[in-house]
Amino acid sequence: MDYGHFGDVISFDITYKTNKENQSFGVFVGLNHHRETVIFGAALMYDETVDLFIWLLETFLQAMSEKTPKTILTDQDAAMTKAISHVMPNTYHRLCTWHMMQNALKYVNVVFRGPGGVKSILSKFIDDIEEENQFLIAWNEMLEKYNAQNNNWLKSIFNIREKWAYAYVRHVWSTGMKSMQLSESFNANLKDYLKSDLNVEQFFMHFGRVVNDKR
């Protein structure tokens, strides 16, 4: 029922690893009409291949009466990106801006020196610039100013700018979601319940308690 009402915009995060097999744990989450976190589904991942993600997305949709979301947010995982385009070709795939900024700190923090650093510089492209031509002009000016024309990470995110830049996503239905910190917060709550020595059955029993506590 929750997904039927609030499943137009969802996020999927696979960053949390738990249980004694150290498997990746992924959660599908969204927002309800009170802007509270809603958990739609979860999975323990034995690997993170394209085929596995295709199976996961297809299984999720089957459980949700084949209702596809209008928008899905994920990190920059290439395998998940391919799976989404295969299973949900009409769903708009947005990148989580929080994960993107963490990657920016990792890959280009040394490139941008000055007040505010990388966060200040990239945030205007993520949040502020509204028109495509303005984005392109500002982007080229940034590359020239910091002599970053050959930076591979900046090239890679520019090539997928329609997934994260405000100039391209401002008309996309998103209920205000632009990051996966909903699931990050939920993952933090899991740590209060789950222990690394749990087997699969115990894990999902405890996970059910977490979900019930969120209702």
UniProtKB/TrEMBL annotation:
Domain of life: Eukaryota
Alphabetic keyword roster: Metal-binding, Nucleus, Zinc, Zinc-finger
Entry keyword annotation includes Zinc: yes
Protein's cellular compartments: Nucleus
GO cellular component, one term: nucleus
Predominant subcellular localization, coarse grouping: nucleus
Pfam family, one: MULE
GO BP of this protein: regulation of DNA-templated transcription
Residues in MULE transposase domain copies: 9-103
GO molecular function, one term: zinc ion binding
InterPro entries from the UniProt entry: FHY3/FAR1, MULE_transposase_dom
Family the UniProt entry places it in: Belongs to the FHY3/FAR1 family.
Chain's role: Putative transcription activator involved in regulating light control of development.
Official protein name in the record: Protein FAR1-RELATED SEQUENCE
Organism: Dipteronia sinensis
